Amino acid sequence: MSDVKAEARKIAFAARKAAFAAGQGQAAELLADVLAPHRGKPLAGYMAMRTEADPMAAMLAHQGPVCVPVIVAAGEALRFREWTPGCAMEMGAFGALIPAEGAWIEPEVLIVPLVGFDARGYRLGYGGGFYDRTLQGLRAKRATLAVGFGFAAQELAEVPIDEFDQRLDMMVTESGVRLF
User: Fold this and answer.
1) How far does the chain reach from its first CA to its final CA, in angstroms?
2) Residue range of the domain that includes 38
3) Would you identify the family this protein belongs to, as annotated (predicted)?
């Protein structure tokens, strides 16, 4: 399975790179609109790296606590640290910026980065399983909304999955919103 996923990642990374070069369009504003009914709920965003779609506009528009993921250790679920505009940031694992300090927050709504996705709502991540473990744990406690965010070009015919993969509830791209 790891070889199949590695090949799918290679294809999806190339598509994302080309889509990123073409521009994000109105995707960030659309994401903010989709998240508006969830004001007041803790929202997990992420600090975009390389060619990821950037959710910053939606994070800034959210009326409620916002946090970003922190990788604690390989094989563990993510934790989320409170983020506010202008807060002190430091380099975290894998080169992602994270708040240098702040409260730990358990999100109810997550903007989920991805390498690829399919029409069933499955996502292809970077291969560490962090979001799958995190979503499984959060969903065991309460309803948790997972919103994939990326480019339409990242859609694959079928994401290879195993028993650990968690589905997204919706996907937001520059082409619109898809519910799963």
Assistant:
1) 24
2) 2-179
3) Belongs to the 5-formyltetrahydrofolate cyclo-ligase family.
Provide the number of structural domains found in the chain: 1
Distances (CA, A) of 50 to 54, 131, 160, 175: 10, 19, 24, 21
Mean of pLDDT values over 69-98: 94
* Cα–Cα distance for residue pair 84/65, rounded to 1 Å: 8
Q: Which residues pair with 124 in a beta bridge?
A: 116
pLDDT, tens digit, for every residue of 112-164?
Answer: 999 999 999 999 998 889 999 999 999 999 999 999 999 999 999 999 999 99
Let me know: does 123 contact 52? Beta carbons within 8 Å. no
Residue in 143, 134, 70, 142 with CA at minimum distance from that of residue 103: 70
Beta carbons of 98 and 70 less than 8 angstroms apart: yes
Amino acid at position 42, single letter: P
> Which CATH number does the domain housing residue 95 bear?
3.40.50.10420
| Bridge-based pairing state of the strands 97-99 and 89-91 | antiparallel
